[in-house]
């Protein structure tokens, strides 16, 4: 069983539209995992039935029992996150600032501080309209530990793939280079980098690929909106060949991507020409990872 | 006066709006632009200025001193992030998991885990005309953006006058990095696109800023594409849309080159003018 992870570094390059298209082409062959838990959009194209959902707890939050508090101020002194302000004469934990390190509770002389596990969101298991199963999630607003929720989504998807004897898990990864991406990438057999030939697109591609390289994962690249700028397109291709990244497809700039999404469809269902290009890249991926 | 430019969804035009708005404002007065998307900072691709100042940014992590350690294992016990492990006769520290809470260090009975500086990124300050541009970059492999965002905001607060307009180009999403970038702002401008993805993520972003209790308004980018879902949602929820930037291939091409849009595209100039006017009246307390 292999994990194929689609990431982009930069947002808005078409990562989710392309991943959803792959999911559509692959149908029941695969399990889908939406690891962009922070702003999860893939379900909008997949028609999920929201069959099962479970709360996800991770990390801790401190709470100060005002009756037991003697206002010695030690908790505030040791807190490196400025999470314990004094409000109306009381030491209060600011839930948005508290990192859940538990230091305050350990040094409180009257044991007035307790830590409780935080509900940071939920993960869901859905049947989707391609006939496959999809694991996705919703992170609570402002929640920490999105990396752990990503890991949970992936692990659940892997377990289902094993159980149902599926050959691959297709992962819609998160943007950026921080903890959710690191979590998305760990254990991947192949990474699909979706980029665009803009100065920002190339800049972010280079940064995120440095991370992929640290993991030693083989990568391919889809250049979306390929005809936007010839010079940057050329630079992108030079970068790909220098780094031995497979060029999987060049997709022209086309508003049909948005049109398909607006109609709740993947681009392979919406436009034959674009569909052919995207399908072609999926075939290449299958060949490379030997699906 | 701090204005955070944010969005739930990535790629809706935060950086485009931030760089164009800040450059436009700087034509007539001092303005600060801070790129807080430290994981993938892009504003600097559009702003060419003179480098004024560079500084390394550090986080604090414990370092094991085997000479004095008695291997009691308390450090592992007090670490909530599994960043300190006792393995046989070794204490191992995993810097990427460490949140820098100091618990292991200060609660160590023999003081064998002193906190040491570890570089997590770099802050650069540029100047072009009236525009002060601050950019921080997270070292690739560092997982936590929040401490660097925090230190960048501190730098801006320490170095620039309270009254000066400061534009924060924020990271995408709704989790800890964007909270850190927007919680200090006086006004949040949410940039979205009129598509189902745009709408879905706008709703999350609205929830986020509401939870922070921040005043906010919306700018629609790529106006004309997609559907009227965003417009209807904003109307129903009484959210003010202050500007609409049209969907235009020429904009995408200009952006692709790394050029500012408003000097060459009249519709963008009109939009930044309106947004800057809104900020002015907000500053005067009229909004």
Q: How are the SSEs ordered, and which strands pair?
A:
The complex is a heterodimer of chains A (291) and B (287).
Chain A: E1 2-7, H1 15-26, E2 30-34, H2 43-46, E3 52-64, H3 74-78, E4 86-87, E5 90-91, H4 103-107, E6 113-127, E7 133-139, H5 146-163, E8 168-172, H6 179-185, E9 190-195, H7 199-215, E10 218-223, H8 230-242, E11 246-250, H9 256-262, H10 267-270, H11 272-289
Chain B: E1 2-6, H1 14-25, E2 31-35, E3 50-62, H2 74-78, E4 84-87, E5 90-93, H3 103-106, E6 115-128, E7 131-138, H4 146-159, E8 165-169, H5 176-182, E9 187-192, H6 196-212, E10 216-223, H7 229-236, E11 241-246, H8 249-257, H9 266-283
Parallel strand pairs in B: 1-8, 1-9, 2-7, 2-8, 9-10, 10-11
Antiparallel strand pairs in B: 3-6, 4-5, 6-7
Helix pairs in contact in B: 1-9, 4-5
In words, what does this structure look like?
The complex is a heterodimer of chains A (291) and B (287). With 291 residues, chain A is α/β, with parallel strands linked by helices. The mean pLDDT of chain A is 95. Chain A folds into two domains: 208 residues, P-loop containing nucleotide triphosphate hydrolases (Rossmann fold); 62 residues, Alpha-Beta Plaits (2-Layer Sandwich), CATH 3.30.70. Helices cover 38% and strands 25% of the residues of chain A. In chain A, a hairpin with a 5-residue loop joins strand 6 and strand 7. With 287 residues, chain B is of the alpha/beta class. Chain B folds into two domains: 219 residues, 3-Layer(aba) Sandwich (Rossmann fold); 50 residues, 2-Layer Sandwich (Alpha-Beta Plaits). In chain B, the strands form two sheets. A nine-stranded mixed β-sheet of chain B has the order 3-6-7-2-8-1-9-10-11, sandwiched between helices. A two-stranded antiparallel sheet of chain B has the order 4-5. In chain B, helix 7 links the parallel strand 10 and strand 11. In chain B, helix 1 packs across helix 9 and helix 4 packs parallel to helix 5. At the A-B interface, helix 4, helix 7 and helix 9 of A face helix 5, helix 6 and helix 8 of B.
